[in-house]
Amino acid sequence: MELVEWGYGDTYFFLGSDVMKLVEIKFKEEVNPEEITKRLLEIPHVKDAKLIGKQLETLLLAYKSGYFDSPGRVTLRDLAEMLNSAPQR
Question: How would you write the pLDDT of the chain (89 residues) with one tens digit per residue?
Fold first, then answer.
């Protein structure tokens, strides 16, 4: 894709019977990421994703913060603090 400078993604999440692949993309400088995102959300299987706003925000924060790394770089408590939310007990 000529709009992308680089892309990286080898992380898969299993959400019930669905599989979600997380891909991190660096767009070229002249590209408007918001426009690309809008176009991607028009694709049926992307548009019909079952994650809602806060769930997606939490998943992305966990991924980018290193929660899924081995060993994890942050704890569940760290994520809860970043989200201003109390951890579930």
Answer: 576 666 666 677 776 677 777 777 777 788 787 887 777 778 776 666 666 677 777 888 888 888 888 888 999 889 888 888 865 55
The bridge status of strand 18-27 relative to strand 4-15 is antiparallel
Tally of CA atoms within 13 A in the half-sphere of 41 that contains its CB: 8
Strand, helix or coil for residue 22: strand
- E strand or H helix at 78, and its extent? helix 76-82
Per domain, the residue ranges of the chain are 1-49, 51-89
DSSP 89: -
pTM of the model as a whole: 0.50
